[in-house]
Design brief:
Length: 461
C-alpha cells in the first residue's frame, strides 16, 4: 500500500510539472502572437539590417534562440516555431544562431528585392558600378566586427583586381576610401600593407560614427581582428579608448586621412574615377564607400532651429550641469544622451518623441531609461513634436495642446539622412531598383551575387 502511494505521488507531481510547463508555454505563445501583431501594426517587425533567417522546416520550437538573444524581445515562438517579432531591435549579434541546437538559423539580409535601402553587392563588396565598392554599415550589416572584416575583405579584393598600373598622372591613386570608421580604417590598413596608394576622406576624422557617441560611452565590440594589430582583447571599450586605438594605428602606419571634405559626387569609370568633394577633386582607380548609414543629421525644420543652443550631437554631458535640456528623438542615441545628462548635477532633462512609446531601443537602454523616468530624473514626453524653439523656452505640440518648457539647450538626435541619394547619383543599384533578371537574382540572394566568392569575405555573425 505504501509503495502504491509513493508511485501515485510521483505520477501526480510529474503530471503537475507537465501541466505547469504546458500552461506557461501556451501563455508565452499567446504573448508572442500578440506582440507580433502589435509590432506588425507599428512596422516594428521589419529588420533594418542583418537578422535571423529561420528555417521553419528545421526549427523545433525549443525557444533556445529566444533566450540567447541579448536584446531579449527580437524573437518569439508562434505556432510552435521561432519567428522574428521585433526586427527593428535586432542588430545582428548572431547569438541566436550560435545557440540553436539544430542549426535552423543563419544571419543575413534575405531577399532584398523590396528593400530600397540595401545596395546590391557581390560577395566581394563591389556594387553594380564596376570599381565602386561598399563596406560597413552601408552594406546593411551592422556591428564593428563586421565592418572591420568587410573593409579588409574589400581591400584584399581590390588588390587582387588591381592588375597592372594604368599610365597617367601621378595624382591618380589606387583607391579613395570615403569614411574613416572601422570599415574605412581597416581597409586603409590593408591598403598600406598591400602596397596600394590610398587616401581616406572623412568629415570628422579617424573613428567615424564613434566620434559622435557621448563621452565615456561603452562600445560593445564582438571578437574582432584588426589588420596589422591583431585581436582586441576585450569585448567592451570606452569610446575614448577605442578612438585611441584607431588614432595610434593612423600614426603608426602613416595613413593619409584628409579631414573635412564632404564627398558630393563620383564620376568616371573603373580605372579613372573623379571623386568630387567640397575641398576639390581626387582621382582614383577604385572608390570604397564606407560612409555608414547615418549621413547628415535629420533636421526638424521648425522656427528657432538655427539658434546657437541647438546641437545635433552630445559630446560631453558634464558640460551641461545645472542646465535645462530638451533631447529630441526616440532611438538609442537620444535615450543614451538623455540618460547621460540625467546623471549630471542640477541638469533637468526632457525627452520628446513623436510616438507614444519608445520602440526601437536596446533592451538594456529601455530598462535603465524606465528606471530614470520612474525616479523623476527624466521627463518623458511621448506623442509630442517640437513646434518652436526660443531663447529661453521650447514649445511642444502634445495630444492635449501646446506644452511650454523652460529651456537652455536642445539636442536633436532624430537620426540622419542616409547617403542613398549620393549612391543613386553615382549609379549604384539598390534591391528595390532591379529590372533585369541578373540583378534580380543578386537581390534575391541577399544583395550578394551567388556565383562570386572570396575567402574571408564579409561575415554575418
Amino acid at each position: 500500500m505504501e509503495a502504491v502511494l509513493i508511485w501515485m505521488t510521483m505520477f501526480g507531481l510529474g503530471g503537475l510539472s507537465v501541466w505547469f510547463y504546458l500552461r506557461q508555454f501556451r501563455k508565452r505563445r499567446t504573448s508572442d502572437s500578440e506582440r507580433l501583431k502589435q509590432n506588425q501594426d507599428l512596422g516594428m517587425d521589419r529588420p533594418v539590417g542583418q537578422y535571423p533567417l529561420i528555417d521553419a522546416a528545421a526549427c523545433i520550437g525549443c525557444g533556445t534562440c529566444v533566450a540567447a538573444c541579448p536584446e531579449h524581445d527580437v524573437l518569439g515562438i508562434v505556432m510552435g516555431r521561432a519567428i522574428v517579432i521585433n526586427g527593428a531591435r535586432c542588430i545582428g549579434h548572431g547569438k541566436c544562431a550560435e545557440a540553436c541546437p539544430v542549426g535552423a538559423i543563419k544571419i543575413g539580409l534575405g531577399d532584398i528585392t523590396k528593400r530600397d535601402d540595401i545596395p546590391v553587392l557581390t560577395t566581394r563588396g563591389e556594387t553594380t558600378v564596376p570599381g565602386i565598392w561598399i563596406a560597413g554599415e552601408l552594406s546593411g550589416y551592422a556591428l564593428i566586427n563586421n565592418a572591420v572584416s568587410q573593409g579588409q575583405a574589400v581591400m584584399d579584393a581590390i588588390a587582387g583586381a588591381r592588375g597592372p598600373r594604368l599610365e597617367g598622372p601621378s595624382e591618380i591613386v589606387d583607391v579613395i576610401i570615403v569614411g574613416a570608421g572601422p570599415a574605412g580604417m581597416s581597409a586603409g590598413l590593408v591598403a598600406a600593407e598591400r602596397g596600394l596608394t590610398c587616401v581616406i576622406l572623412d568629415q570628422q576624422g579617424a573613428g567615424g560614427t564613434i566620434l559622435q557617441y557621448p563621452r565615456r560611452k561603452l562600445v560593445m565590440v564582438q571578437p574582432v581582428v584588426i589588420p596589422r594589430l591583431g585581436r582586441l582583447p576585450k569585448h567592451e571599450y570606452l569610446k575614448e579608448d577605442l578612438l585611441e586605438i584607431w588614432e595610434q594605428l593612423h600614426k603608426d602606419y602613416g595613413l593619409d586621412i584628409r579631414i573635412g571634405p564632404r564627398v558630393t559626387g563620383v564620376k568616371g569609370k573603373r580605372g579613372d574615377f573623379t571623386v568630387e568633394t567640397t575641398a576639390g577633386n581626387w582621382r582614383a582607380r577604385h572608390v570604397l564607400l564606407a560612409l555608414g548609414r547615418r549621413g547628415s543629421p535629420r533636421r526638424l525644420n521648425v522656427p528657432g532651429e538655427d539658434l546657437p543652443k541647438v546641437a545635433y550631437k552630445l559630446i560631453d554631458a558634464e558640460a551641461y550641469k545645472g542646465r535645462r535640456v530638451l533631447v529630441v528623438g526616440g532611438g538609442d542615441s537620444a535615450v543614451e544622451a538623455a540618460m547621460g545628462l540625467a546623471h549630471q548635477d542640477g541638469c533637468t532633462v526632457t525627452l520628446s518623441y513623436r510616438k507614444p512609446e519608445l520602440m526601437r531601443i536596446k533592451q538594456r537602454n529601455a530598462e535603465r531609461f524606465g528606471e530614470l523616468v520612474a525616479a523623476g530624473r527624466i521627463d518623458f514626453r511621448g506623442d509630442t513634436n517640437v513646434k518652436t524653439i526660443q531663447a529661453e523656452r521650447v514649445v511642444l505640440d502634445g495630444p492635449s495642446g501646446p506644452i511650454v518648457l523652460p529651456n537652455d539647450e536642445v539636442f536633436i538626435l532624430a537620426g540622419g539622412v542616409p547617403p542613398f541619394g549620393l549612391l543613386r547619383d553615382i549609379g549604384v543599384a539598390f534591391g528595390g531598383d532591379q529590372n533585369d533578371t541578373e540583378r534580380l537574382d543578386v537581390a534575391k540572394a541577399g544583395g550578394m551575387h551567388p556565383s562570386l566568392t572570396v575567402v574571408g569575405g564579409p561575415p554575418v555573425a
